[in-house]
């Protein structure tokens, strides 16, 4: 018996970057629920950087095949599974592979409720040894599981030894007749204690909160009247989900992690101010709940809304991190907003869904999501590492019929729930005010900046004209100055040939088209029309973003060309650079050709606009302070 690997999955598996070390527990818990377990057990082995995980599910048969493979083989294989999509969580059979990132693993299983017979396999350095040539044939041990474990861990610290005894107590109390036990020694992860250990007050621990917020044991569909949901909502969403007991052993004692997502319970506080009544929305302690099921394309989805004002969430999610204050390591901000869930497991935030509905787009703005948690659950496809959605899942979420159903739910809530209606109204009002204030602040900042910028004055017919010098990034202003000053040229100026009559401005392609000589008839003859590009700083340190072969003039506020270096464009052309004798403001790009060998007879004029202005006009520059 050998592990089976479907190689089209291998590259995807190898490319997985685990978002969180505790994903290994998420996957083990999912497998246990898929196996119909009613009792789960977890204990960290801090000294050994390992863990114990057990369940009383159906076990891993090594003889009964489903989808052409036995459950035992599937546990050690990639891309092969006994599970079917829609009927279980881990149908891609990828998650259990996280177990093999360790120095040693023991997998033991009991499949016959009438026999005290455990099958097991110990693998040293599984990542290096577990391949298609490695035998995973289990060893049968007709005696007790204790002998198998004692052989795997011949010596343990006192704390870890107590954890093993905690496992035996769990097996006895749960009357385990079938099930699976996984022991891991030296899991390959940094800071094992931070993520996997449990504090004296377990609810303050990272792993405790991870299980509640991100695993199948923290099923988002588990609604309760204590949370403020109605019986109708509970019946729709929660009636068909399974529930198991999860026992943890740490600090010399066993305790339970509650089942279900940790929605805040309904407050008994009276006279709570509504969203319309609070002076600052972020101080809100308002509360509301809603949930329903809907169908799209024959598939059933759940949508759950839990509104808890920002202040209430901060006060009652005691063990979640917030800005400037670390607690369990799970961030409160990561639990607020709209999320996609798959078979009860919260997967990822997806505020983009709200952005696609005009009336509710404000819920995705800024800090709006600090007041609510909306979860949409269904059988969405996931990528290999199951931390984000597949293209197929996004296609579903972008389906107009799906969006229509979500909007229908939100519309109904706005009509029937005054808290949601007031929150939405208040957010829209504040969003409008914030955006207006933001624009006013930008305008005021721009006005103040004007006073600090470099400027120049030029005299024409006894009149004085004030202009601002361009700043980096203001290529458009370079063009505006060039076009404007052409109309102020002194009569008979010897520099008139350098000032083209600009006819067009464009944000795409060539910046401007102009007339070379206004005296030519007709003035728009092809030979009389020139192309002009504007730059703040023109140099040959990087490629020019237009084809040199189609540009006649380049007008830049600053020119920093090195005549010893060629200039290239982003297409295939390059040319040489030279300074024009006699004019401090004029350069040329000549001998232009392509990498394929094509030669172009044109020459590109490069004009330093600031120096051209100084040469053409009676001008005075006033230095700025920015």
Automatic annotation (TrEMBL):
Cyclic nucleotide-binding domain segment(s): 362-416
UniProt xrefs under InterPro entries: cNMP-bd_dom (IPR000595), HATPase_C_sf (IPR036890)
Name used for this protein in its record: Cyclic nucleotide-binding domain-containing protein
Source organism of this protein record: Massilia solisilvae
